[in-house]
Amino acid sequence: MNPTDTPLELPLDVERIMTLLPHRYPFLLVDRVVEFEHSKRLVALKNVTVNEPCFTGHFPGHPVMPGVLIIEALAQASGLLVFLSAAKHDAQPMYYLVKVDNAKFTQMVVPGDQLMLHVELKRMIRGMGLFACRALVAGKQVAEAELLCAGRSGA
After folding, report:
1. pLDDT digits (tens, 9 = 90+) for 99-120
2. Is the backbone of residue 16 left (phi > 0), alpha (psi -120 to 50) or beta?
3. Any alpha helices (H) in 42-154, and if so which ranges?
4. Alpha helix ranges (H) inside 21-155
5. Is 25 exposed, middle or buried (0-12, 13-18, 19+ CB in 10 A)?
6. Termini Cα distance of the chain
7. Residue 150, Cβ neighbours under 10 Å: how many?
8. What average pLDDT is seen over the chain?
9. What is the mean pLDDT of residues 45-49?
């Protein structure tokens, strides 16, 4: 049995996430999936820790998670939503981030924060998914963006 064919039980841990996403350290930015509504929405979390490589240079003495990594975490959560909603996992294309619109960062994310990644599928057309995404820390929105991801086979 393929590990991606087992029934979905929440929360989805990092070991299961690694069977679904190709990303690995230091670029796997989703630690757990806590909510999932088929073809509609997903909530995941990312534990932000001081030992992550980005904090050695962003910024020394005042570590702040780069906004581009928050966007990447939201894109990975979006990919999980598409992949978990697919009828068949074996022949899934790789999804790539192709467009970011209306990105806003309203609060710094620092080590010790738990980043909650809320993604909602707005529409899926010709292998491209449009997602409304929000990142929250302690219930307060810290970032938002609209992401467009495109599937590509054989990449």
Report:
1. 999 999 999 999 999 999 999 9
2. alpha
3. 67-85
4. 67-85
5. exposed
6. 25
7. 15
8. 92
9. 98
Strand, helix or coil at 40? coil
What Å distances lie between residue 88 and 12, 18, 71, 75, 143, CA to CA? 18, 17, 27, 21, 32
Residues, the chain: 155
Distance CA 72, CA 121 (A): 16
Q: Evaluate whether the domain defined by 3-152 bears CATH number 3.20.20.140.
A: no
Q: Identify the residue whose tokens are 């999936």.
A: 33
Among the listed residues 67, 8, 70, 4, the one whose alpha carbon sits nearest the alpha carbon of residue 33? 8
Q: Show which residues are catalytic.
A: 58
Residue 12 neighbours by CB under 8 Å, 6+ apart? 32, 33, 36, 80
